[in-house]
Specification:
about 450 residues, globular, 8-stranded parallel beta sheet, 9-stranded mixed beta sheet, TIM Barrel
Length: about 450
């Protein structure tokens, strides 16, 4: 007996669309076609509705500090699944940081105990942990989804200098995710603005830093071929370097929604402070052009939630980052409604491409044998996103006031209905660690 049958939905993939039934058993898709034989415990009519794979957000910061106002794995994953994100990958610069096997085990235990979404975990690159990072991210049974390198914008052991970066290129082969801002360029601008508040955060971290870092990545990838994923691209200068080598080098790119929807023309104050910065309007438009031209491979929220009290501090003290995991679907599906991007392209960016790049072989597709991570929704009129709709524990979003699509009508994670129209309906579901299959 099937656990679930979703009947007559319009299934969307990067290759097109078709009307079919989906049958689920034990958390897996076991049949796709017309009128499957056999009974089902539950049948859902999806006539007139789209059915897509659950979104994969490979760039989140789910902190677990024990602070009642801060995000943790439970609150962050609730926000994620409410907006159709059924798999998340947590960055290493959270609590606990992930630099060692012990760190990794601690974070995994927290996520297994609290997360409603399935999850991957990045291991951070540092001068002291090349061997441990390689052990976690490589081999026959890797645990980490990739090795995250901070070329700039971090502090302490996670800030990687050029010599350490070269060592990682020389001695590791796993997927390398990179925060690409050159620290030497950033240091020059810190000196320029010493003792003063810049007009915008962008003025203190301009495009030169991103361009210099990406140019260095291209140089090193030529010398030491290995997969590199450039996180949160935000400037046309980066694509001036990346476009000529696209397809020739194993470099892929991610964009964050705030670099597609926000610019320095939005008056957000410290609530808009994020690294890399929100850019001028011309760069925001350039990110849309790059997305439409196929130069961007994935969308990652860079969900880095800080409280209102933290953001209200003076510019120099206010932390960088903003919530975003729950608004990927509403923003992008809203853009589909507005004719800015096709739904097939959204499925590529948010499901198929992340699964392929990260080696998640049972995610990202509506196909037999894949995890039953499924979103069901209808095309509806856009609505204003309100603060009351925010599920992230910090209680604010830079996208409040934006016209967006409603959250999915139904969100299935591993075949279980976990959210309906933005509300959590299954608090008991717990995610599993998603590990890559390296080719």
């Amino acid at each position: 007996m099937y656990d679930l049958v979703i009947e007559d939905g319009t299934l969307i993939s990067g290759k097109g669309r078709r009307v079919a039934d989906i049958c689920v058993e034990d958390g897996k898709i076991v049949y796709i076609g017309s009128r499957p034989a056999g009974p089902a415990r539950q049948k859902i009519s999806a006539i007139g509705r789209f059915v897509v794979p659950g979104f994969i957000d490979t760039h989140v910061h789910f902190r677990d500090p024990g602070h009642p106002a801060k995000e943790d794995w439970h609150s962050g994953s609730r926000a994620a699944v409410s907006g159709g994100v059924t798999t998340v990958c947590d960055m290493p610069n959270t609590r606990p940081p992930t630099l060692t096997r012990g760190d990794f085990a601690e974070k995994r235990a927290l996520a297994e105990a609290r997360s409603l979404a399935d999850f991957g975990i990045w291991v951070g690159a540092a001068a002291s942990n090349v061997d441990e990072a390689r052990a976690l991210a490589e081999g026959d049974a890797p645990l980490a989804c990739g090795i995250k390198v901070f070329m700039g914008a971090s502090t302490g052991p996670l800030l990687v200098d050029d010599a350490t970066l070269v060592r990682f290129f020389e001695q590791t082969r796993a997927l390398m995710g990179v925060h690409a801002e050159d620290e030497r360029v950033l240091e020059r601008y810190r000196e320029v603005w010493a003792g003063r508040t810049p007009p915008t955060h962008h003025d203190s971290r301009p495009a030169d830093a991103a361009r210099a870092a990406v140019a260095r990545l291209v140089e090193l990838t030529r010398a030491y071929p290995r997969p590199v994923h450039v996180c949160h691209v935000s400037t046309s200068a980066e694509f001036e370097v990346l476009e000529p080598v696209r397809g020739a080098l194993p470099i892929t790119t991610e964009v964050s929604p705030h670099h597609l929807w926000l610019s320095t023309e939005n008056d957000l104050g410290n609530f808009g402070k994020v690294n890399p910065p929100i850019r001028p309007e011309v760069e925001r438009r350039a990110m849309w052009a790059a997305l439409k031209r196929g130069l961007i491979d994935t969308v990652g929220s860079d969900h880095a939630p800080h409280t209102r009290e933290e953001k209200a501090l003076d510019y120099a003290q206010a932390p960088s980052g903003m919530p975003g995991v729950e608004t990927i679907f509403p923003l992008l599906v809203g853009a589909v409604k507005q004719g800015r991007v096709g739904l097939e392209r959204v499925v590529q960016l948010c499901a198929e491409n992340p699964a392929r790049i990260f080696g998640f072989t049972d995610k990202g597709h509506l196909d037999v044998g894949f995890d039953a991570d499924i979103l069901v929704f209808a095309e509806k009129e856009l609505v204003r996103f309100t603060a009351a709709q925010v599920l992230s524990r910090v209680g604010w979003s830079p996208f409040v006031g934006q016209k967006v699509a409603p959250k999915p009508e139904r969100v299935y994670a591993g075949g279980r209905l976990v959210a309906e129209s933005g509300s959590i309906v299954d608090e008991a579901r717990r995610g599993r660690l998603v590990t890559p299959t390296r080719s």
